[in-house]
Amino acid sequence: MKYALLVYLEEAKFDAMTQRERDSYVNASLDNDAELARSGHFIMAQALKTPPHAVSVRKRDGKVSVTDGPFAETKEHLGGFMLIEARDLNEAIKIAGDLPLARVGTIEVRPFEELTYIDIPEEEAAR
Amino acid sequence: MNEARGIERTVEAIYRAESRRVLATLIRLLSDFDLAEEALHDAFAAASERWRRDGAPANPRAWLVSAGRFKAIDRLRRRARFDASLTELAERLDAENQDAAMREAEEIEDDRLRLIFTCCHPSLPPDAQLALTLREVCGLTTEEIARAFLTAAPTLAQRIVRAKTRIRDAKIPYEVPARTDLPDRLDSVLHTIYLVFNEGYSASSGASLTRHDLSGEAIRLGRLLVELLPEPEAIGLLALMLLQESRRPARTSPSGELVLLADQDRTLWDRKQIEEGTALLERALFSRRFGPYTLQAAIAAVHANAPDTGATDWGEIAGLYDILLQADPSPVIALNRAAAIAMRDGPAAGLALIDAIFARGELLDYHLAHSARADFCRRLGRTADARASYLQALSLTRQEPERRFIERRLAELGE
């Protein structure tokens, strides 16, 4: 089964670290990716730029609006994500707990939802 | 190409047949559930790669255990770069003599038993014992167990995580209990297996196919236990499950309605299961060291071997319930005994017994107790009392087929 591990981080915690500490998290995370690739759990992993680099986009009544920053104002923001293949939710939890960033942030484990085409009756599909 | 697919299939077949045994041994060798699960995964990943090149080994189980152990030591060494405490563990595991760990075949057979006893350790809450047994011993995934128990997967996953933490923190030993502790500890294992069975057995609607599989899983567990530890009560439990399971095809009508024992088409009962269950029962009774499960199996066997309700030996059943109630004085058994005595001596006798149970403040929330009381009242012509008890049962039941059954009975009462 496939799961997304969403890594939520608090920027203030990283600001309080030395450069060396921050760098060691980067290396440990890359090592961990390699370990998961070796064991066949790894699909992909991606770190994300910080919230000041984000824009949020909506389209309502045909009009697109764009605002600065992430959609939700929270202390912890999405710092990156990883997609994995695991036997079940408990194996995914174990892998999440072993991420180096689990020691400073929160890892949200979300199972994939598989979408398939659905037969929609004509009159409703017309819209 | 075909050869590669052949090896894939071999690995899959070996996974199904051996993965739980290999896991059980790895847990002993590595003293850690999570590490052992990782090692199991790594060992099978290595197997599909290596066996494709070199062919499958003569003894795949030993190969997998050995590969798993080396992979675990590798992992610990790599991780030790960030967590120095792991270095010592890796060194220790490496120093242990692999051959000594593997030498005794008996030791390996016992590993599965160790795993069962650890998963059913009494210091774990019952629902955690259940979840852990199904995942680690039966190899079900967290999501499958959650579906079967109609529980949210995150809730079940947390139960498993907490149980494993508890095993680690409380240093629950990975061992088959000593003779003196065996009866109590075995009780806990049997109880877990029977809970799994009942979870599947009480689900009788067509929509609950996955729950039905739980009964099959419990019977498989029961067989494994009898194979590893042929104690009379383990044999009795397996007999009980087989005898109950034999009635499954007759318990629901084609439209999914509940059919009571008295109204079941007995030609639908599974004769092979009845024969096997009866033979196991005789084996358990012969030991003269049997207990409540064997007695319940004996009762089930009386039903299984009777051509219809009228020809059932209710005197024998009532007598078995008397002994059972002494061995296990629980209110549910007292209720079943009341039903048997009602069949032997008439509904008034049964009603008096149920009212005595209620007067003790027991089973007031149990829908089957109210439903039984309603049935006795109906047979005595006390329609108003019957209706009140059916309504009480209806307000307590959570299962759709049972609801419909009670509603039908209420409608039959008429005015």
TrEMBL record, chain A:
Family matches, as Pfam families: YCII
Start and end residues of each YCII-related domain: 1-114
Domain of life: Bacteria
Entry similarity comment: Belongs to the YciI family.
Protein's name according to its UniProt entry: YciI family protein
UniProtKB/TrEMBL annotation, chain B:
Domain spans labelled RNA polymerase sigma factor 70 region 4 type: 116-166
GO-annotated molecular function: DNA binding; sigma factor activity
Domain DUF6596: 185-284
Annotated SUPFAM superfamilies: Sigma2 domain of RNA polymerase sigma factors, Sigma3 and sigma4 domains of RNA polymerase sigma factors
Annotated GO biological process: DNA-templated transcription initiation
Gene3D superfamilies reported for this sequence: 1.10.1740.10, Winged helix-like DNA-binding domain superfamily/Winged helix DNA-binding domain
InterPro entries (UniProt xref): DUF6596 (IPR046531), RNA_pol_sigma-70_dom (IPR014284), RNA_pol_sigma70_r2 (IPR007627), RNA_pol_sigma70_r4_t2 (IPR013249), RNA_pol_sigma_r2 (IPR013325), RNA_pol_sigma_r3/r4-like (IPR013324), WH-like_DNA-bd_sf (IPR036388)
Domain RNA polymerase sigma-70 region: 14-81
Protein known as: RNA polymerase sigma factor
Species for this entry: Allomesorhizobium camelthorni
